[in-house]
Amino acid sequence: MDAAPLLAEVGRELHAARPEAVLVGNAAAALQGAPVTTIDFDFFFRKTPRNLTKLKAFARALGATILRPYYPASDLYCVVRDGAGSRWTSWRPHTA
64 near 55, Cβ under 8 Å? Predict the structure, then answer.
């Protein structure tokens, strides 16, 4: 699978939504030129009402749904869009 179109789409929508978030994991490594293959994107983000609104806008722009698969045990948010396969974008609140 060529992840470049998905990476470009996610990048465009992140730029538009402007969340306070940091990309981590293999997708971040791939952007730095590491020879990894991934189709998931992992972020740490500030859990504020405004940032959650931005997360919802990001999901809506991708035609995706926000899930809380481990609630209440975890604060993990997953943005999921079904298509040629599941596309997961996980958002983990950062605690200072």
Answer: no
Inter-CA distances, 20 with 5, 26, 34, 37, 85, Å: 23, 19, 24, 25, 27
For the stretch 50-94, pLDDT in tens is: 999 999 999 999 888 888 878 788 888 888 887 645 556 777 777
Provide the token pair at 31. Answer: 């952007």
**Cα 28 from Cα 9, distance rounded (Å):** 15
Phi, psi values for residue 80, rounded to 5°: -125, 135
Q: Are 71 and 35 in contact (CB under 8 A)?
A: no
Instruction: Check residue 33 and give its pLDDT.
Output: 77
Q: Which three-class secondary structure state does DSSP give residue 90? A: strand
